[in-house]
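Action item from last meeting closed. Structure (272 res):
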């Protein structure tokens, strides 16, 4: 009997240690590997399926922080801690006293990236990525897609993360659409991220126009914006914009310990 108990305990111990392993780390927007303090990432691998978000923490470059969502046993969503130093380092995940393997990552001081739309969580532990349509109509919160394109002069909202801890709350971002400077209507800032409301230039060409956001002299990834001709929404109204800024979270059916980021500054640039 003692031998059976020992073998059972030993087997359970092996099973537990095998349920916390990192196989890859990618950003939640373009799903690349451009990391900076404040970047939101998917950590892929094998994780305890019974654990909630509050059970997890991540450590990057000696800095530890919480996660956003314990999505499935195949991946979790977390921000790179805002005080993470730059350079080559490792990322580990801890859960209820157990630690994963150390996964190598390189942290830049500033790596602005346009945030995506998260993932769908179904019955499979694998991530099911939503289409990367990061632009929103600020009046309706509907996403801009090729079947529902933006119009010239229309206000749009986009979020950018990976801004590090040294970007001042009043840092002025700029947005270009097909190489044309867009007018900024409003900027909401929080630690490591900004949400920008801008107007599609009146002379933006129809089609899929490349959009680049520049913050602190660094360019974001380039994202295609579908632009058409028919007006889609009413003019942007400042009171319609929330004074709260929360990180985009994956759609999920599991528990989480997501933390709301309180805005530090709201800086209107131009009247609507």
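Sequence:
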């Amino acid at each position: 009997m003692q031998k059976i108990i020992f073998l059972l305990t030993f087997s359970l111990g092996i099973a537990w240690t095998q349920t916390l392993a990192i196989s890859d780390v990618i950003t939640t927007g373009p799903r690349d590997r451009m990391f900076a303090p404040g970047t939101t990432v998917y950590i892929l691998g094998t994780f305890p399926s019974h654990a909630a978000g509050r059970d997890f923490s991540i450590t990057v470059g000696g800095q530890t922080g919480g996660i956003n969502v314990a999505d499935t046993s195949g991946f979790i969503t977390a921000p790179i801690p805002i005080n993470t130093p730059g350079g080559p380092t490792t990322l580990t995940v801890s859960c209820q006293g157990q630690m994963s393997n150390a996964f190598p990552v390189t942290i830049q001081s500033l790596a602005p990236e346009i945030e995506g739309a998260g993932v769908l969580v179904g019955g499979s532990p694998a991530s099911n990525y939503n289409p990367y349509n990061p632009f929103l109509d600020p009046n309706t919160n509907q996403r801009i897609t090729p079947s529902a394109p933006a119009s010239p002069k229309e206000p749009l909202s986009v979020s950018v993360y990976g801004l590090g801890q040294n970007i001042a709350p009043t840092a002025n971002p700029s947005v270009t659409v097909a190489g044309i400077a867009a007018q900024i209507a409003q900027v909401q800032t929080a630690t490591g991220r900004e949400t920008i409301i801008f107007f599609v230039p009146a002379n933006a060409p129809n089609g899929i126009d490349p959009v680049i956001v520049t913050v602190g002299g660094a360019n974001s990834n380039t994202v295609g914006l579908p632009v058409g001709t028919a007006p889609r929404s009413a003019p942007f109204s400042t009171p319609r914009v929330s004074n709260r800024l929360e990180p985009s979270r994956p759609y999920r059916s599991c528990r989480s310990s997501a933390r709301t980021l309180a805005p530090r500054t709201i800086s209107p640039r131009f009247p609507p």
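Note appended to the action item: Residues 136 and 142 are 6 Å apart (CA to CA).
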